[in-house]
Every structure is written in C-alpha cells, then in structure tokens.
Amino acid sequence: MKWKQQIYGMKAYQPGKPMEEVKKEFGLDEVVKLASNENPYGFSPKVKAFLNNEETNHAIYPDGYAQNLRTAVANHLGVKETQLLFGNGSDDIIAIITRALLYPGVNTVMATPSFSQYSHNAEIEGAEVRKVPLQNGKHDLKAMLEAINESTSVVWVCNPNNPTGTIVDHNELEIFLKSVPSDVLVVLDEAYFEYVDSTEYKDSIGFINEYSNVIILRTFSKAYGLASFRVGYAIANEEVIAKLDPVRAPFNNTILSHKVAIVALEDQEFIHSCKEKNKNGKKQFVHFCEKHGLHYYPTQTNFILFEVKADSDVVFHEMMKRGFIIRSGNALDAPGYIRVTIGTEEQNEKFLSLLEEVL
Ligand code: PMP
User: Fold this and answer.
1) Of 79, 193, 234, 286, which alpha carbon lies 20 to 30 A from 203's?
2) Is the overall model pTM greater than 0.95, yes or no?
3) Distance, CA 79 to ligand 1 centroid (Å)?
C-alpha cells in the first residue's frame, strides 16, 4: 500500500497500562492511577445527579455544531459563539490544527519536554518538528522565536507545560506574541488552566482579540473530571475558527457529552474546591521532595515532575507493583524524574510513604 513515508516506524500513542491489567499482573485488589492527570475527586455531584436521571436517545446523531454547549461556553467565557471550536477532547483539536496547517516543507516549533501529541501529529503530517529545550523547566520563548523562520506554520506553547507544570506568565507571553509573525499560528494549550494559581498569570482570552494568530485550547478532561466524555475546545478569532471547522469530523462529540459538559460548567464551586484541595496535595509532594533533597518543578497543575535520583523506569515499575501507576520520566524526555498526578490527601500520603521505601 502507499502509506505516507513518515508512518513507517511510528508507534501508536500508548499512555500506560490499563488499571485492570495492572491489577491482574501484580495480583492487586486496588490500583490507583496517578499517570494521566485526571481529577482524583471525579466530577461534580451535579453531573452525577444528572446522569442518574438522564434519558438521551443515543440512536440519533448529535448536533455537530454543539449549539447548546457552544452557548454555555461562550457565556461562561464572555466570547462569541463563532470564536469556539469543539473537539473530541483537545487531542482532536490538536489533530485538526496539524491537519489544517502542517504538511511536508513547513515546520512547527515547540518546547521539549512538552505534550507529546504536538510532535506526534506533526510527524504524521510530514512537517519538520523543531524542538526547543526548556530552560529551568520553562519555555525558552526567546529561543523559540529564533527557531521560527519563513517556513514555520504553527508554534505550540503548553501553558502550564506538561510534564513540568511550569507556566509562562502573561507579560512574557505578550512580548512573545508581539514578535511572532502574524501568519504563524500560536497555540496556547491551557489544558490545566483551572488549576493555575500564579498571581503573575492573567486570563489569556483577551489575546484572541489582540492577536489574530492566537488559539487557546481548553478541556473538560482535567479539573472538570470528564476525561472519558472527550470534550475539549478551542477559542480563537472567528476567521481562524472558520478555517479549522471544515477539517473537523462532523459529529465529533456525543449528545451526552454535550449535556454533561453544560452541567459541569454550571458547578464552578466544584472546580474551586478541587483547586483548593489540589493546592494542599501539592504541598505534600513539595514537602517530600524538600525532605529528601529531590529537585522538583514548581507546578501550576494537578501533577508534579520530580527527581528520583534513580532510574525512572525502575521507580515506575516498583510503584506499579505497589499499586500506583505513574509516569516514568524516560517516557517524557525527562530521565531521572517521575511525573505524578496529585491525588487525594490519602492517596498522596500512601504513595509517598511507598515511594520512600523504593528510593
Ligand atoms: N494538552 C495537554 C497539555 C494535556 O496534558 C492533555 C491530556 N494529557 C491534552 C491536551 C489532551 O486532553 P484531552 O484530549 O483529554 O482534552
């Protein structure tokens, strides 16, 4: 068959073993997954109540334009409905962006380590991937700017960055955006937006009116606790959205996912309480790292990347045997480190006491 050349040698994205498999393999009754930065508190009780009583007709196609969810998100953010694009998770939006803008002969600029789907999708499209190392765990925006040339089509700023959890603040971003050529799309991936508590950080939505080449990605998968429903969205200038929309699959969410996201959006109290609990959870990890002299990155998210002074894969396996699935830094371009989702207070306590045994 006439496969794209770049497909050869590529591996499917495999974000760790399923919990059931780990239970079976290690004979465990309980496994805690702290590997994919889901919300350890689940989703809003209002969503639960809604799901208990809902009677969706799943035999019909969903509204491809996601009108009801669109109205809810537009009102919530104070943007126009035409400034939004919905995806099957923000993964889908990343794929839509790369399909629309990347092809052989153009390049795309991103940080490393950063979220793997940017380079994965860019490679599928045959574009050149330009990876710029983080500096002290943060995006090196100056070096990223230098990496941009006339063939650059898309620049990715994961903010806060996965896997470091670090953030580029508003002023730094503003300086960067002023210098990026206006025909280069700048993607601000804010999957962890709801967890940010830096005082240096201001809401980036205003950028879309100032800069026609900015697109912001957000998701219901993290703080909203709806990863399985697969709802992500993009906010950008109307012309950018109109160009991307034809690339989107026609029914890329489900009727139920639309409904559930609307209910979740209405419960900001839940988001606030998760953010507060996450702040306390972060302190448990920071305390552990400081006690053991382990380097960690100051995180603005619900995960933390820290040094283990050991082979990350070994630590990953030892923790899996003990019932905790985490991410080895080797899989994240961060050898010698592990990335752990901040769990509930109890999960963190148990995890850290077991980790103490392993290190
Ligand atoms: N962006 C970042 C930075 C992420 O960490 C993730 C999830 N791992 C995503 C996007 C994709 O999330 P989803 O497709 O569930 O919205």
Assistant:
1) 286
2) yes
3) 22
Contact indicator for 115, 162 with CB cutoff of 8 Å: yes
Q: What amino acid occupies position 83? A: Q
- 53-106 pLDDT, tens digit per residue, is 999 999 999 999 999 999 999 999 999 999 999 999 999 999 999 999 999 999
In ligand 1, the atom with minimum distance to the C-alpha of 158 is 3
* C-alpha angle 168-173-177 in degrees, rounded to nearest 5: 150
Mean pLDDT of the region 308-326: 96
Query: How far is it, in rounded angstroms, from Cα 259 to Cα 251?
Result: 15
Question: What pLDDT, on the 0 to 100 scale, is given for residue 16?
Answer: 73
CA angle 79, 83, 88 (to 5 degrees): 110
How many angstroms is it from 180 CA to the middle of ligand 1? Answer: 24
The helix/strand count (H/E) of the chain reads as 13, 12
For ligand 1, is residue 152 a contact (CB within 6 Å)?
no
306 ligand 1 Cβ < 6 A: no
Model confidence over 6-29: pLDDT tens digits? Answer: 999 898 887 777 889 999 999 999
The helix or strand, by DSSP H or E, that contains position 286, with its residue range, turns out to be helix 268-292
CA of 88 relative to ligand 1 center, distance in Å: 11
Q: What is the pLDDT of residue 12?
A: 86
| Secondary element (H or E) of residue 208 | helix 207-210
* Residue of the CA atom closest to atom 4 of ligand 1: 191
